[in-house]
C-alpha cells in the first residue's frame, strides 16, 4: 500500500476544482457523498457504486471509492433502507469514503467520458452539440471518411462490445460528421440531426430511437451505457494518482447495458 495518505476532504476538493463541479446543475450531488473520516492511501475507481464494486474495495483494503454513478439521485427515495441502506452500511462498516462525479465527468474537455470515447474512436471533437452550453455534455466530431458498418466494427474493437447499429440507409454509406454523448443520451439524436451529423453515438437506445434515426436520416450506434462511460473515471483515477501519489485501481464490474 502507498505510504502517502490524503483526507477525503483533500480528495474531494481537488476533484471538485479539477472538474469544475460547482458549475453544473446535476441530477445528483457531485463530490464527497459518504465521508468515512479516515485517511486515504488506496482508491478503487469504477463506473457505478454497486455492491459488487464495494466488495472489491473491501477486498483491496481501499479507503475510498471514486465513481461516475453514485447515490442520492433526484426523485430517489431518501430513506437508507433496502439495497441503498446495505451499500452505505458496507461503506461505513469498512471505513470507505465515496466520491461521485456525474455531468462534470461527462463534460471535461481533457479527461471526460465524451473525450475519452472520441479518442478511442479516432474522432476529433470540433464543436458542442448544444452551442449554448458552457460545459457541453454532448459533442460533434469529425472523422476520416469511414463506412457505417466499418465504424460499427471500430466501436466493437474499442469497447469490446458490439454496438446496436440502426442504419439510416446503406450499410456502406460514408460517415464524416458524428455526434456523441455517452450514457443515456439517445434523445439527443434530434439535435444531432439538426446539426447536420451523419451519425450519433450514445450508450442506450429506446424503442422510439429506431424510428427517429430512420426518419431523421442518420445512423445511430447504441454502444452501451456502461461501456461508453468507463473512460472518464479511468482517466480521473490516473490524474488523482499522479497528483497525490496514492494507489488507484480501476475495477470493471461487468454490465451489458
The count of strands amounts to: 11
The end-to-end span amounts to: 34 Å
Unreliable parts:
none
- N-to-C SSE string, H for helix and E for strand: HEEHEHEHHEEHEEHEHEHHE
Tally of separate helices: 10
Radius of gyration: 19 Å
Describe the protein in words.
- This protein has 257 residues and is α/β, with parallel strands linked by helices.
- Helix content is 36%, strand content 22%.
- The protein contains ten helices and eleven strands.
- The chain has helices at residues 8-19, 51-59, 82-93, 103-107, 113-120, 148-159, 189-194, 207-216, 225-228, 230-244, and strands at 31-34, 42-48, 64-69, 97-100, 124-128, 139-147, 164-166, 174-180, 199-202, 219-222, 247-250.
- Strands 5-6-8-9-10-7 form a six-stranded mixed beta sheet.
- It is elongated, with a radius of gyration of 19 Å.
Amino acid at each position: 500500500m502507498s505510504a502517502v495518505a490524503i483526507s477525503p476532504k483533500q480528495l474531494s476538493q481537488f476533484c471538485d476544482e479539477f472538474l469544475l463541479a460547482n458549475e453544473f446543475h446535476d441530477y445528483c450531488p457531485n463530490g464527497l457523498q459518504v465521508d468515512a473520516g479516515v485517511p486515504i492511501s488506496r482508491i478503487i475507481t469504477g463506473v457505478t457504486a454497486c455492491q459488487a464494486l464495494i466488495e472489491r474495495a473491501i477486498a483491496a483494503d481501499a479507503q475510498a471509492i471514486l465513481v461516475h454513478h453514485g447515490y442520492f439521485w433526484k426523485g430517489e427515495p431518501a430513506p437508507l433502507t433496502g439495497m441503498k441502506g446495505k451499500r452505505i452500511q458496507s461503506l461505513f462498516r469498512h471505513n470507505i469514503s465515496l466520491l461521485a462525479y456525474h455531468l462534470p465527468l461527462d463534460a471535461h474537455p481533457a479527461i471526460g467520458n465524451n473525450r475519452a470515447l472520441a479518442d478511442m474512436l479516432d474522432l476529433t471533437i470540433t464543436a458542442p452539440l448544444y452551442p449554448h452550453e458552457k460545459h457541453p455534455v454532448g459533442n460533434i466530431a469529425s472523422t476520416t471518411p469511414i463506412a457505417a458498418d466499418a465504424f460499427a466494427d471500430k466501436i466493437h474493437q474499442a469497447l469490446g462490445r458490439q454496438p446496436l447499429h440502426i442504419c439510416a440507409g446503406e450499410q456502406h454509406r460514408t460517415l464524416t460528421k458524428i455526434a456523441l454523448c455517452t450514457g443515456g443520451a439517445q434523445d439527443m439524436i434530434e439535435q444531432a440531426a439538426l446539426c447536420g451529423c451523419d451519425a450519433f453515438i450514445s450508450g442506450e437506445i429506446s424503442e422510439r430511437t429506431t424510428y427517429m434515426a430512420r426518419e431523421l436520416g442518420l445512423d445511430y450506434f447504441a454502444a452501451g451505457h456502461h461501456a461508453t462511460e468507463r473512460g472518464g473515471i479511468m482517466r480521473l483515477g490516473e490524474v488523482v494518482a499522479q497528483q497525490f501519489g496514492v494507489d488507484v485501481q480501476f475495477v470493471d464490474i461487468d454490465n451489458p447495458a
